[in-house]
Amino acid sequence: MEESNQDTYKTILRPSEEIFFKEKKSKFFGYAYPISDEDEAKPLIEALRKKHHTANHVCYAWQLGVEEPHYRANDDGEPNNSAGMPIYGQIQSFGVTNILVAVTRIFGGTKLGVGGLISAYKTGAKMALEASQIVENTLQQRFVLKFDYEQMDQVMRTLKQQQIEILSQTMELSCTFIISVRKQEAEQTLELFTAMHPPIGVKKKE
């Protein structure tokens, strides 16, 4: 990201509609999917291969992560860097992450040349992203709070004042809360709870 303290990122809300266009008799189908793990990409690509069983190429690119994003681009048999990288270029252009964009090609008998392929795959990716609902999400940091029952009022009052979300709470011999805050407010939240008297147990949850 451009700024180290930026804690928002853009992704898509749900899979895009299928987009379709033709270029010199070749048929192109474009898709965009939100993903949170690279393991999610493979079954989506396999499903496209089954759906378009006459397709010569199912090319794609994905990007995951926000602070340290990583990506993969696959030409699936097309000339080197003529498909996957143009698709990835559109992911960068739209500024989205945690996303898979795939473009399927059914060959129409006329070669497009490397320049034509780059243009076609770029267009397919662009149309799929334009057909998607892009949303802005916030990076979250989770904490585990451990404290005694006597401190419940103090903790609950602080959580309410700071509008901090409680993800789960366990009441046994002592209390354990898992809370979630915006990443850029993480250190401030940590200080808030460690400064309590008596101090309560608080640690980041990975």
Automatic annotation (TrEMBL):
Record family assignment: Belongs to the IMPACT family.
Pfam families: Impact_N (PF01205)
Organism: Sediminicola arcticus
Lineage start: Bacteria, Pseudomonadati, Bacteroidota, Flavobacteriia, Flavobacteriales
Organism domain of life: Bacteria
Start and end residues of each Impact N-terminal domain: 24-129
Official protein name in the record: YigZ family protein
UniProt xrefs under InterPro entries: Impact (IPR023582), Impact_N (IPR001498), Impact_N_sf (IPR036956), Ribosomal_Su5_D2-typ_SF (IPR020568)
Gene3D superfamilies (UniProt xref): Impact, N-terminal domain (3.30.230.30)
